[in-house]
Amino acid sequence: DLKDLSHVTQSEYASKHLKNLGFKFTYLGDYLPDIFFENLKTSQIKKDVVLYNPKKGLPYINKLKSISPDIKFKAIENMSQTELKKLLSTSKVYVDFGHHPGKDRIPREALMSGCCVITNTKGSAKNGIDIPILSKYKIHLNDKDYLIKAKALINDCFVNYEKSISEFNNYRNVIINQKSEFIKNVEVFIKSHNL
Question: What is the pTM of this model?
Fold first, then answer.
């Protein structure tokens, strides 16, 4: 019955899934709140801290923490947008080893706040459209040495922060343009459905 309906998607990952099922859909996308675009050029003192969402891939994060007693990890939980932006703005790395069921919000918020973003290759993180970052920042969790690779990558982001963060410029530009793209996609959707 659902195949007769018109669906909208937020990610390339969801679009491919619906296409494979033979569903009709329109890609709309989404965008971040304005607070993450304020004071983009304000220089913050960045600390050697790894942030993570404890609801996303916690068993993998815990294993990474266990082999990295020299690295400071901090969980993101129970924060307002203002508190979250402040924390992200003072940290160098955000790690997300979750399932990535869509175009996740916190990795984008982290990047816009100056964090290097490290993901796995699950869900939307697998493709280069939803999370367009260099492959070296996407850890294959089925590799036997993934923990060593992740730790080395984190340390490289700490030591060579300016170089590392510059490698995310393309993703940052994509995020900056998402609001105008969303508005454009909504206008097309409305016209095509005679709404």
Answer: 0.93
Task: For residues 76 and 100, give the distance between their C-alpha atoms in angstroms, rounded to a whole number.
Answer: 17
How far apart CA 20 and CA 13 sit, in angstroms, is 11
Dist. CA 81–CA 101, nearest whole Å: 22
Q: Could you identify the residue written with the tokens 């939803």?
A: 130
Who's near 57: CB < 8 A, 6+ residues apart?
96, 97, 98, 99, 120
Q: Residue 5 to residues 2, 24, 25, 147, 185: CA-CA distances in angstroms?
A: 5, 7, 9, 44, 18
Question: Which residues is 94 bridged to in the sheet?
Answer: 51, 117
Q: Tell me: the pLDDT tens digits for 100-152?
A: 999 999 999 999 999 999 999 999 999 999 999 999 999 999 999 999 999 99
- Indicate the pLDDT class of residue 39, thresholds 50, 70 and 90: confident
Where residue 119 falls (left for φ over 0; alpha for ψ -120 to 50; beta otherwise) is beta
How far apart CA 93 and CA 154 sit, in angstroms, is: 7
Which long-range CB contacts under 8 A does 176-181 form with residues at least 24 apart?
176/37, 178/29, 178/30, 178/31, 178/32, 179/31, 179/32, 181/29, 181/31
